Amino acid sequence: MKFRTALLALMACGLSFPSLADVNLSLPYQAELVLVNGVEKEGNQPLVLPNGVNQIAFTYRDSLRENGDDFLYTSDVIIVKFTADDEKLHLQLPKLRTGMDGKNFNKTPQVTLVNDAGDTVVFKQDKLMKAGLQFGRDYEKEMVTYNASGKVAAVAPVVPVSAPIPGIPQAKDGTQPRNVAENMLNYWYEQADEVTRARFKAKINQQ
Protein backbone atom coordinates (compact mmCIF):
# COMPACT_ATOMS: atom_id res chain seq x y z
CA MET A 1 0.00 0.00 0.00
CA LYS A 2 2.86 2.36 0.81
CA PHE A 3 4.47 1.75 -2.57
CA ARG A 4 1.17 2.47 -4.32
CA THR A 5 0.86 5.70 -2.37
CA ALA A 6 4.44 6.63 -3.20
CA LEU A 7 3.95 5.98 -6.89
CA LEU A 8 0.79 8.08 -6.92
CA ALA A 9 2.70 10.82 -5.15
CA LEU A 10 5.42 10.74 -7.79
CA MET A 11 2.81 11.05 -10.52
CA ALA A 12 1.15 13.93 -8.69
CA CYS A 13 4.52 15.69 -8.49
CA GLY A 14 4.70 15.73 -12.27
CA LEU A 15 7.49 13.18 -12.72
CA SER A 16 7.35 11.77 -16.25
CA PHE A 17 7.58 8.03 -16.85
CA PRO A 18 8.82 6.66 -20.18
CA SER A 19 5.54 4.80 -20.74
CA LEU A 20 3.60 8.08 -20.90
CA ALA A 21 2.97 9.07 -24.51
CA ASP A 22 2.71 12.82 -25.03
CA VAL A 23 3.67 13.52 -28.65
CA ASN A 24 0.87 13.40 -31.22
CA LEU A 25 1.92 13.15 -34.85
CA SER A 26 -0.52 13.50 -37.76
CA LEU A 27 0.39 12.25 -41.22
CA PRO A 28 -0.78 13.28 -44.71
CA TYR A 29 -2.68 10.75 -46.79
CA GLN A 30 0.36 10.19 -49.02
CA ALA A 31 2.52 8.92 -46.12
CA GLU A 32 2.36 5.13 -45.79
CA LEU A 33 4.09 4.03 -42.58
CA VAL A 34 6.74 1.32 -42.65
CA LEU A 35 8.27 1.53 -39.16
CA VAL A 36 7.64 3.43 -35.95
CA ASN A 37 10.57 3.40 -33.53
CA GLY A 38 11.94 0.27 -35.14
CA VAL A 39 8.66 -1.67 -35.09
CA GLU A 40 6.84 -2.48 -38.33
CA LYS A 41 3.72 -0.38 -38.83
CA GLU A 42 1.24 0.18 -41.66
CA GLY A 43 -1.26 2.87 -42.57
CA ASN A 44 -1.17 6.59 -41.93
CA GLN A 45 -3.33 7.04 -38.85
CA PRO A 46 -2.23 9.68 -36.30
CA LEU A 47 0.48 8.43 -33.96
CA VAL A 48 0.81 8.86 -30.21
CA LEU A 49 4.51 8.70 -29.34
CA PRO A 50 6.60 8.95 -26.17
CA ASN A 51 8.31 12.21 -25.28
CA GLY A 52 11.90 12.45 -26.43
CA VAL A 53 13.55 11.04 -29.55
CA ASN A 54 11.33 9.26 -32.08
CA GLN A 55 12.05 7.72 -35.45
CA ILE A 56 9.54 6.90 -38.15
CA ALA A 57 10.00 5.42 -41.61
CA PHE A 58 7.46 5.75 -44.41
CA THR A 59 6.98 5.85 -48.17
CA TYR A 60 5.22 8.46 -50.27
CA ARG A 61 2.31 6.70 -52.02
CA ASP A 62 -0.08 8.38 -54.41
CA SER A 63 -1.53 8.18 -57.88
CA LEU A 64 0.62 10.04 -60.42
CA ARG A 65 0.34 10.59 -64.14
CA GLU A 66 2.83 9.47 -66.79
CA ASN A 67 2.31 9.79 -70.57
CA GLY A 68 -1.42 10.27 -70.11
CA ASP A 69 -1.86 7.25 -67.82
CA ASP A 70 -2.28 7.08 -64.04
CA PHE A 71 -0.05 4.82 -61.97
CA LEU A 72 0.56 4.15 -58.29
CA TYR A 73 3.82 5.75 -57.23
CA THR A 74 5.74 4.51 -54.21
CA SER A 75 8.90 6.30 -53.13
CA ASP A 76 11.96 4.96 -51.40
CA VAL A 77 11.62 4.49 -47.64
CA ILE A 78 12.17 7.82 -45.91
CA ILE A 79 13.47 7.98 -42.33
CA VAL A 80 12.64 10.93 -40.08
CA LYS A 81 14.12 11.33 -36.59
CA PHE A 82 12.98 14.13 -34.30
CA THR A 83 12.88 15.16 -30.65
CA ALA A 84 9.72 16.57 -29.08
CA ASP A 85 7.92 16.80 -25.74
CA ASP A 86 4.19 17.34 -25.12
CA GLU A 87 3.52 18.60 -28.64
CA LYS A 88 1.15 18.07 -31.52
CA LEU A 89 3.15 17.71 -34.72
CA HIS A 90 2.20 17.49 -38.36
CA LEU A 91 4.24 15.82 -41.09
CA GLN A 92 3.83 17.63 -44.41
CA LEU A 93 4.65 16.40 -47.92
CA PRO A 94 4.47 18.18 -51.29
CA LYS A 95 1.80 17.30 -53.82
CA LEU A 96 3.35 15.25 -56.63
CA ARG A 97 1.52 15.08 -59.96
CA THR A 98 3.76 13.48 -62.58
CA GLY A 99 6.26 10.68 -62.86
CA MET A 100 9.01 13.28 -63.12
CA ASP A 101 7.83 14.78 -59.81
CA GLY A 102 8.18 11.32 -58.29
CA LYS A 103 11.70 10.86 -59.64
CA ASN A 104 12.76 14.26 -58.31
CA PHE A 105 11.19 13.52 -54.93
CA ASN A 106 13.12 10.24 -54.70
CA LYS A 107 16.35 12.11 -55.34
CA THR A 108 15.63 14.83 -52.78
CA PRO A 109 12.58 14.11 -50.61
CA GLN A 110 10.92 17.33 -49.47
CA VAL A 111 9.60 16.69 -45.96
CA THR A 112 8.44 19.26 -43.41
CA LEU A 113 7.58 18.85 -39.73
CA VAL A 114 5.61 21.59 -37.96
CA ASN A 115 3.88 22.02 -34.62
CA ASP A 116 0.39 23.35 -33.89
CA ALA A 117 1.69 26.91 -33.92
CA GLY A 118 3.00 26.43 -37.46
CA ASP A 119 6.63 26.54 -36.36
CA THR A 120 9.06 24.26 -38.15
CA VAL A 121 10.45 21.44 -36.00
CA VAL A 122 14.07 20.44 -36.53
CA PHE A 123 14.53 16.82 -37.62
CA LYS A 124 17.03 14.50 -39.27
CA GLN A 125 16.17 12.79 -42.53
CA ASP A 126 17.59 9.89 -44.53
CA LYS A 127 16.50 6.93 -46.63
CA LEU A 128 16.42 3.21 -45.76
CA MET A 129 17.94 1.68 -48.86
CA LYS A 130 18.41 -1.88 -50.00
CA ALA A 131 20.26 -3.00 -53.11
CA GLY A 132 18.65 -5.44 -55.52
CA LEU A 133 15.10 -6.77 -55.35
CA GLN A 134 12.78 -4.89 -53.01
CA PHE A 135 10.30 -7.71 -52.42
CA GLY A 136 10.11 -9.43 -49.04
CA ARG A 137 12.12 -6.82 -47.20
CA ASP A 138 12.65 -7.23 -43.46
CA TYR A 139 12.35 -3.57 -42.50
CA GLU A 140 12.84 -4.15 -38.78
CA LYS A 141 16.13 -5.95 -39.41
CA GLU A 142 17.22 -3.31 -41.90
CA MET A 143 16.51 -0.56 -39.38
CA VAL A 144 18.55 -2.32 -36.70
CA THR A 145 21.47 -2.37 -39.13
CA TYR A 146 20.88 1.25 -40.08
CA ASN A 147 20.75 2.44 -36.46
CA ALA A 148 23.96 0.56 -35.69
CA SER A 149 25.64 2.45 -38.54
CA GLY A 150 25.37 5.79 -36.75
CA LYS A 151 24.07 7.56 -39.87
CA VAL A 152 22.34 10.92 -39.77
CA ALA A 153 18.86 9.68 -38.79
CA ALA A 154 20.01 6.75 -36.64
CA VAL A 155 18.87 6.36 -33.05
CA ALA A 156 20.50 4.54 -30.16
CA PRO A 157 19.32 0.94 -29.72
CA VAL A 158 16.27 0.62 -27.46
CA VAL A 159 17.05 -1.17 -24.19
CA PRO A 160 14.86 -4.28 -23.86
CA VAL A 161 12.29 -4.22 -21.06
CA SER A 162 13.95 -7.21 -19.43
CA ALA A 163 17.30 -5.43 -19.20
CA PRO A 164 18.37 -4.04 -15.80
CA ILE A 165 17.63 -0.34 -15.36
CA PRO A 166 20.71 1.78 -14.60
CA GLY A 167 20.95 2.71 -10.94
CA ILE A 168 18.80 -0.18 -9.70
CA PRO A 169 20.73 -2.84 -7.73
CA GLN A 170 20.77 -6.36 -9.13
CA ALA A 171 20.66 -9.75 -7.52
CA LYS A 172 23.85 -11.81 -7.36
CA ASP A 173 22.81 -13.75 -10.46
CA GLY A 174 22.50 -10.48 -12.36
CA THR A 175 18.71 -10.46 -12.46
CA GLN A 176 16.36 -7.74 -11.31
CA PRO A 177 15.36 -8.05 -7.60
CA ARG A 178 11.85 -9.28 -6.88
CA ASN A 179 10.71 -5.99 -5.34
CA VAL A 180 10.46 -4.16 -8.64
CA ALA A 181 8.08 -1.51 -7.29
CA GLU A 182 10.56 -0.38 -4.64
CA ASN A 183 13.45 -0.31 -7.06
CA MET A 184 11.50 1.58 -9.70
CA LEU A 185 10.40 4.07 -7.06
CA ASN A 186 14.00 4.59 -5.94
CA TYR A 187 15.15 4.97 -9.53
CA TRP A 188 12.61 7.64 -10.48
CA TYR A 189 13.16 9.48 -7.21
CA GLU A 190 16.86 9.70 -8.07
CA GLN A 191 16.00 11.07 -11.54
CA ALA A 192 13.83 13.86 -10.11
CA ASP A 193 15.07 17.36 -9.40
CA GLU A 194 15.12 18.79 -5.87
CA VAL A 195 11.79 20.58 -6.25
CA THR A 196 10.03 17.39 -7.37
CA ARG A 197 11.69 15.42 -4.55
CA ALA A 198 10.42 17.95 -2.03
CA ARG A 199 6.87 17.67 -3.38
CA PHE A 200 7.17 13.89 -3.31
CA LYS A 201 8.24 13.89 0.35
CA ALA A 202 5.41 16.25 1.24
CA LYS A 203 2.89 13.97 -0.42
CA ILE A 204 4.18 10.93 1.48
CA ASN A 205 4.14 12.79 4.81
CA GLN A 206 0.48 13.67 4.27
CA GLN A 207 -0.53 10.01 4.13
From TrEMBL:
Upper taxonomic lineage: Bacteria, Pseudomonadati, Pseudomonadota, Gammaproteobacteria, Vibrionales
Stated name of the protein: UPF0319 protein ABT58_03515
Pfam families assigned to the protein according to its UniProt record, in alphabetical order: DUF2057 (PF09829)
Family (UniProt): Belongs to the UPF0319 family.
Family annotation (PANTHER family): UPF0319 PROTEIN YCCT (PTHR38108:SF1)
Keyword Cytoplasm listed: no
Signal sequence segment: 1-21
Keywords: Signal
InterPro entries assigned: UPF0319 (IPR018635)
The keyword Signal is annotated on this UniProt entry: yes
